[in-house]
Design a protein that fits this description.
The chain is mainly α and 178 residues long. It is built from 7 helices and no strands. Helix 1 (2-22) packs antiparallel against helix 3 (41-64), helix 5 packs antiparallel against helix 6 and helix 6 (126-146) runs antiparallel to helix 7 (150-169).
């Protein structure tokens, strides 16, 4: 059952994300997911809910194998970040809402990235640990250089979908490097 949840949740969220991002274009700042949300707030909320369900369910499935409990705190904080992202407009004319939106978005992104990184590190999946860390660093650099675009925003999310699905559905554990 967990394999089905893992695959289906990521597939649905990925397809929806592509369709949603297509509303504003994948490149350029007007294609940023939050900017699209200004014109399509309900679709933005659906995107956020699907994204957090897909990523969080896969993180929980991965951690379940290891019997850790701290991930619930991290995912709770990330969920609060997503709620703030969805509830406050990315509109600079509403400066306080804009700041709260940005704080929520960064909280969701950072805490979710840390959760994925820790999952791979603690499960001794060192290849995915290095890949996830590298993707987060590259994404940060691209955000600083180009600002928000759908491609840059979706890159770590899609990488997470792929790596979490593979991680949670592999038959054998990765060989531990000593």
């Amino acid at each position: 059952m967990k394999k089905i949840i893992s695959i289906i949740s990521c597939l649905i969220s990925a397809v929806y994300s592509i369709c949603y991002a297509g509303l504003g274009g994948f490149a350029g700042n007007k294609g940023a997911l939050s900017k699209i949300g200004l014109d399509h707030p309900v679709l933005f909320a659906i995107w956020g809910i699907l994204t957090i369900i897909a990523i969080d369910s896969n993180i929980l499935i991965g951690f379940k194998k290891m019997k850790y409990k701290f991930q619930y705190i991290l995912l709770g904080i990330a969920a609060i970040g997503m709620i703030m992202t969805l509830c406050f407009d990315f509109d600079y004319n509403k400066y306080n809402e804009y700041i709260l939106h940005c704080i929520g978005s960064m909280t969701f992104s950072i805490i979710t990235g840390i959760s994925v990184f820790l999952l791979f590190l603690l499960s001794k999946n060192y290849l995915f640990t290095i890949l996830s860390g590298g993707i987060l660093i590259i994404d940060l650099i691209l955000l600083i250089i180009f600002k928000e675009t759908a491609i840059i925003e979706l890159m770590p999310i899609f990488a997470g979908y792929i790596m979490l699905t593979i991680h949670n559905n592999k038959e054998k554990e990765f060989i531990e490097v000593k």
